[in-house]
Amino acid sequence: MNPTSLAEAKKIYSGVKTKVGSLRNVNVVICPPAVYLGVFSATTKGKTGLLLGAQDTHWQESGASTGNISPLMLKDLRTSYVLVGHSERRVAGETDEVVNFKIKAIQEYKMTPILCVGEKERDESGHYLAVIKRQIEDGLEGLSKKASEKLVIAYEPVWAIGKDAKGVETPEGFNHNMIFIRKTLSNIFGQKEAIKIPILYGGSVSAKNADSFLRDGRADGLLVGRDSLTASSFVEIVKIANNSSK
After folding, report:
1. If both were cysteines, with which of 73, 119, 134, 171 could 216 make a disulfide (CB 3.0 to 4.6 Å apart)?
2. 117 has which bridge partners?
3. What is the Cβ-side half-sphere exposure of residue 92, based on CA atoms within 13 angstroms?
4. How far, CA to CA in Å, does 90 sit from each of 3, 26, 37, 55, 57?
5. Could you list the residue range(s) of the whole structural domain that residue 153 is in?
6. Terminal Cα distance for the chain, rounded
7. Residue 78 domain-assigned (yes or no)
8. Which residues are known catalytic residues?
9. H helical segments located in the chain
10. Digits of tens for pLDDT over the chain (246 positions)?
11. In this structure, is residue 98 part of a structural domain?
């Protein structure tokens, strides 16, 4: 729920588009709060080099569901990506079954879901991997191999996010889990399809750790949280990603 004013949202957006629009080695997706989507829908594609994403959606295209936003509404606003299963939505009660409904609806309207997965706690015995496996398998249940062509996975270890973080994820730790995620995807879609699915890292991403997660951790991209609210910080991260892709 940030920023809390349209004026501030426009300021952040303006500070980003003027700096990253000319970068060619990176795709930049802006996911503003839903109330601002319409403001940016006409300006994200084309000249700016930015794409529009939504933070959430309902799985039904219309109906009696006060307060929700349908995938058909998002499509009408030229939305390209939609976050699904974000850790904060899961805390609010979103289940893997609901995530699955949403992914299917998003893809039906030719948008790309960004499926967020990650454990609340990290145990040395590796039992947490079962949580990630379940989130992926249940979230993607019933999808065809073709569906893998419009899918992004974002790994966000919940224990390493925000001011209450219990620790810090390392590029090596992420890489280990990325390999596990890729193997799980391979069991669902096949190895050839799984290798093409981008896997992002999201967990207190900043300009200080972006390069190491991209180069050492071999992340395909980053899901930026807090630092996306400051244009200069976000731009610095985008430039790091652009340079790491050269």
Report:
1. 171
2. 155
3. 9
4. 22, 29, 22, 13, 13
5. 52-244
6. 34
7. yes
8. 86, 156
9. 6-20, 37-40, 71-76, 87-91, 96-108, 128-139, 171-189, 191-194, 210-215, 231-244
10. 999 999 999 999 999 998 998 898 999 999 999 999 999 987 765 555 799 999 999 999 999 999 999 999 999 999 999 999 999 999 999 999 999 999 999 999 999 999 999 999 998 888 999 999 999 999 999 999 999 999 999 999 999 987 778 889 999 999 999 999 999 999 999 999 999 999 999 999 999 999 999 999 999 999 999 999 999 999 999 999 999 987
11. yes
Q: Which residue has the tokens 């390493």?
A: 160
Whether the CB-CB separation of 181 and 132 falls below 8 Å is answered with yes
Q: Rounded distance, CA 57 to CA 55, Å?
A: 7
Largest Cα span, the chain: 49
CB 122 within 8 A of CB 170: no
Task: Count how many domains the chain has.
Answer: 1
Return d(Cα 80, Cα 215) in angstroms, integer.
27
In a domain, 196, yes or no: yes
On whether residue 28 sits in a domain, the answer given is: no
Nearest in space to 32 (alpha carbons), one of 69, 62, 87:
69
SS (H, E, C) 155-210: ECCHHHCCCCCCCCCCHHHHHHHHHHHHHHHHHHHCHHHHCCCCEEECCCCCCCCH
**Residue 13: in which H helix or E strand, if any?**
helix 6-20
Tell me the CATH number at 159: 3.20.20.70
Nearest residue to 51 (alpha-carbon basis) of 215, 221, 213, 189: 221
Is it true that the peptide bond before 3 is cis, omega within 30 degrees of 0?
yes
